Amino acid sequence: MVATLSKVDVLVENKFSKMFSILFLERNHPSIEILPDECLFEVFKRLPSGQERSVCACASKRWLMLLSIIHKDEIAKSNGIEDLSLWNVTFVGDKGLSEIAHGCHLLEKLDLFQCPIITDKSLLDIAKNCPDMTSLAIDSCSNIGNESLKAMGQYCPNLKIVVLKNSPLIGDHELAVLFYLTDKVLTEVRLQGLYIRDLSLANLVAVNLSGCVNITDISVSTIVKLNGGSLKSLLVDGCRHVTDETLVEFLKSCWMLNVLDVSKSGITDSGIKTLANATKLHLQILSLSGCPFVSNNSLPFFLDLVQNLQGLNIQHYLGISFRTVDALVEINPSSDILS
Hints:
One of its GO terms (biological process) is SCF-dependent proteasomal ubiquitin-dependent protein catabolic process. The structure is a single chain. By secondary structure, the protein is α/β, with parallel strands linked by helices. About 40% of the residues lie in helices and about 15% in strands. It has a twelve-stranded parallel beta sheet with strand order 1-2-3-4-5-6-7-8-9-10-11-12. It is elongated, with a radius of gyration of 27 Å. The chain starts with a strand and ends with a strand.
């Protein structure tokens, strides 16, 4: 079962609330009798136990009568929510998420986006009560920090995908603990807009560090060394402290790498030359957009690089003319070139 809650639900709820209020005023019926049989039927079908259905039906004689005609084969068989997304929800806090943690032990995927009042407290409950978690995404949640990440590593041994974006309380140490505890199963990491400096990860297929402005060559080079045999995608867009030193590490081990984004980083013409001469690399997508230290001297290397690429992004280079782009297209007509 998949559950997603957003502002749209509030609008729908308000719409039906107004409709029921009008019906109540017009008919002067008790509010519990407003719901039609079809709606009550669906509610009863989805209550998890016979005891809960019986207690709920005691609200009125009509409800009891309706419950008595529901056949046991019509009761929905559900093991609870497995995939939960809360997007831009300002009214759901720790109490609500903790209730989900205690009632949905089979939860596997949790996606939180702009949930300002959810804190580490309820994430700790998720970690302790939902051991089957395989995917965790936290984006722009200002009150979620390090303690919940540490707990995820301790209690969720099957965690494969971690996405953390724009959450200021998340730091280096607990990230390191999380990744250390899950390093045997973790395959994909996406970190964006975090204030982190050091990170060591192993056995990864995809790494996204875009916008992590404090990441340096030391951290990225460590990731490259640990994942040379598995890494297929590396994105360091906007990591200004990543330089040519990282590109040199690619030549030693990352022969599986298909996608590389070093846009707005600190690489230079020398780094572009290194990529162009890397015969063991089999890149398919390469993004070099907006690198301030790359000059017109790299144009010959672009001509070499484009031969085997499916996509090349060289936007925001003032020295590249339409003639140069035409030459790149002529060399490899099947390549998508952004300039």
